[in-house]
Amino acid sequence: MSLLFVSPPEGHAPAPQNGVLAMRAVHRAMADLRRGTPVLVGGPDGALVVAAAETVGAEGLRELMAVALCAPVLLLAPVRAAAVLSRPVSLSAPEQGAVALSLPEGLLTPQRLRGLADPTAELLLPEQPERVASPVLAAPALALAKLGRLLPALVAAPAREGVEAETQGLALVAAADIAAYPPSAATTLRPVAEARVPLEHVPEARIIAFRAADGGIEHLAILVGDPVGFAAAGGTPLARAHSECFTGDLLGSLRCDCGPQLRGALHKMASHGHGVLLYLAQEGRGIGLVNKLRAYALQDQGLDTLDANRALGYGADERNFLVAAEMLRQLGIGRVQLLTNNPDKLASLAACGIEVEGRVAHEFAGNGVNDGYLATKAVRFGHMIGEKG
Question: For the whole model, what pTM was predicted?
């Protein structure tokens, strides 16, 4: 498992202006990749021009080739590269999880690239790619794709020396800023809207929306009763860090237990009197809704939740719970009882400075469809299902 453990900056001060500008640069680069536009990832030794394999079209490829120093390669996560090559791949330390494959002319088309990137797509290769040396900056470039909730699969080439991003109309983002983006986005979260929203069986509820300094996606805090006042008076409110699940929370999907966990947490908080549910925009353990649907398709072919995420090029869990910790700090809640079965959530919040006074089990029985999913959470993710306390 690979949750993002990050410590907040000392004093939890807002990022300086140059930090905000760096976040905006990363945010723009993510958006450009999603549009199929190439971006430049810069480092001390030059720049790498990259485009997302699943979104790039003929025009994007033309723009990439216009600034490329040499023929591009395809950057993939190791599991996906092994599937394309039909053999295992080993990594050396400098590669840091990025495998580069050659792109013969027959593969350098938008349709072929999408097939190479997406394990749920049908793919008939006219030519077999070969493994080649990974370029410098490959790892941060793949990290950028993940931040944009794209498949970690990029067409990439070193940029020609002297290429200026402005004259080419391309976004330029520093590798160091990509690495700093998740903690920066979390620690600049601020409340931007609040309203009373009575809920079924939970009449005393308020929703507070939080937004980061780059204007990215919002996260929500659902307050039941008065957890802020309760905490100020020395009490320990119930809390849950709940990652959004469109299929489970809204549609009532039977593939997971997210809907029952969401509604059950609100009911427990209402019975307790005070609680806060942090509704985090981290669908599919941080891979996004589109990729979660792809993972479902792979699960229908026999993979479990963990292996399906890995087959897409993602880690078992890509979430950042510093987001939850910062929202609690902004609310003035520093100590909680956490509704969870996930030991990594307990460890993550504690690592981010929140005092977790105890765990409250939050388990719901299988429904006949999600039994395998629940078993995977217990066996492979280490969730404390079937335990008390």
Answer: 0.89
Q: Is the dihedral of CA 195, 197, 202, 208 positive or negative?
A: negative
- 282 burial via Cβ count (<10 Å: 0-12, 13-18, 19+): buried
Per-residue tokens: 195 = 């309203």
Q: Please give the angle made by the CA atoms of 22, 313 and 122, to the nearest 5 degrees.
A: 125
Helix, strand, coil content of the chain in percent (nearest 5): 40, 20, 40
Domain range 190-282+319-379, its CATH number among 3.40.50.300, 3.40.50.10990, 3.10.100.10, 2.130.10.10: 3.40.50.10990
Three-point CA angle 317, 5, 227, nearest 5°: 95
- Please list the pLDDT of the chain residue by residue as tens digits (389 residues): 333 333 333 443 334 447 888 999 999 999 999 999 999 999 998 999 999 999 999 999 999 999 999 999 999 999 999 999 988 888 765 556 899 999 998 899 999 999 999 999 877 777 889 999 999 999 999 999 999 999 999 999 999 988 877 778 899 999 999 999 999 999 999 999 999 999 988 999 999 999 999 888 999 999 999 999 999 999 999 999 999 999 999 999 999 999 999 999 999 999 999 999 999 999 999 999 999 999 999 999 999 999 999 999 999 899 999 999 999 999 999 999 999 999 999 999 999 999 999 999 888 888 999 899 988 888 888 888 865 43
Nearest to 262 by CA among 364, 180, 163: 364
Question: What residues contact residue 163 under an 8 Å CB cut-off, 6+ apart?
Answer: 40, 47, 49, 67
**Which residues, including other chains, have CB under 8 Å from residue 317's CB and lie 6 or more apart?**
1, 2, 3, 285, 286, 344, 381
Active site residues: 317, 319
Query: What does residue 278 show for φ and ψ, rounded to 5 degrees?
Result: -90, 110
Residues in the chain: 389
Tell me the domain boundaries of the chain: 10-183, 190-282+319-379
Give the strand order in the sheet containing 153-158.
131-132, 99-102, 73-76, 153-158, 46-52, 39-43, 171-174
DSSP of 290-343, one letter per residue?
HHHHHHHHHHTTT--HHHHHHHTT--S---BTHHHHHHHHHHT--EEEEE-S-H
Q: Alpha-carbon distance 365 to 273, whole Å?
A: 25
